[in-house]
Each structure stands twice: as C-alpha cells, then as structure tokens.
Prior knowledge:
- The protein is globular and about 60 Å long.
- It has 204 residues and is mainly α.
- It is 76% helix and 0% strand.
- Helix 1 crosses helix 4 (58-78) and helix 4 (58-78) packs parallel to helix 8 (125-151).
Amino acid sequence: MSLRAKKSEIIKKEKKNLFIISALSVFEEKGFNNTRIKDITEKAGTSVGNYYNYFKSKEEVFEVIISGLAELMISKFRELFIYFQDNRIPPISAVKNLFRGYAKMFKAKKETFLIFLEQMGGINIKYRTKRNEIIDNFTDEVEKIILKLLEFGARSQNPKLTARVWTSTVLGVFNWWIRSDFDLEEEELVINLTEFLVKGTMTN
C-alpha cells in the first residue's frame, strides 16, 4: 500500500470514529429515538452526505457502539484467564475486581447502557437478534471459565447451564442497578453478586 493510500485509510478511520463518538454523545443527550442523522452530523461538524459515506442509518452506527460495549465487557472477563496460565484458580478477589470494573463502566456510561438495554429489549427483530448474539458470545466466554474450573477440581456441574445462569445474573443485576439509579452501594453490589455466583466453585 502506498503512502497516499495509507494516509487515506487513516483519514477514513478517523472520520468514521468521529461519527461514532458524535452519535454516542447525541444518543446520550437526546435518546436514540429522538436522534436524527442531522443531529449527529451537526455534532461532528460535517454534512449528512458525508455521514452516508460511512453509515447507512443511525441504527447502523448504534450497532457499532453496542458491539464495542459488549466486546469491552467480554475482554474484561477474559482477564481471569491469566490465573489459569499460572496453574491457579482465580481468587474471589479477582472476581470482585472484575465486577468492580463492570460497576465503574456502567456508572460512567449510564445513559449509553440505558439506551442499549432499551433497544435490546424492544420489539425490533434485528436488535433482538443482536442481543442474543451478545448474550451468546458472553456466555461462551463464561463457559470457558467454568470448564477451566472443572479441570482444577471445582464441584461437578453443567457448564452450559452454569454459564447461562452467570450471564443472565450479571446482566440482570447490572440492568436493575442502573435503572434503580444505583440504589445499592457499589461495594455491596459487588460482594453480593460475587458470593451468589462463585461460592463453592472458586477458592480464596
């Protein structure tokens, strides 16, 4: 690839990221349903025509945003694998730190997650499909952890069922937490969630 082509690719990527950041800002300010593409382009300081060079609709940029959020949650969960590399079971403290990270992320991006949860729970088939894809990907990562725990002598269990329970519980609890406007103290949430999920499957 020539230097000019590389420079062009960098500019395109920067412009696309600008639209993503601008869309996220407007979604948080106005809500997804009340946002127009013109609102996004005004925030980005560019034209509607330019927007369509990168995205076909506001729904498309929204999918990019929620995919990024989902991948961030999954990547944090993968951090537990570092313990298995050292032939250790993740301690309870590591799981608590994982949930503390989630709590801080949900707090910092409350409006974004509310939009995410609202759209994912709606009647739009496309979003329901995306929601199921995200849940399945998250569950797959949890199942890998459960299988590793079994290798290390954790009590006998159905890995797929346990992974599904973990996923539903984590997403359900944080959904309730942000909708309740953080009614429960962060540390109390972390302790209760950890105790419920990992008691009997991990060691201190």
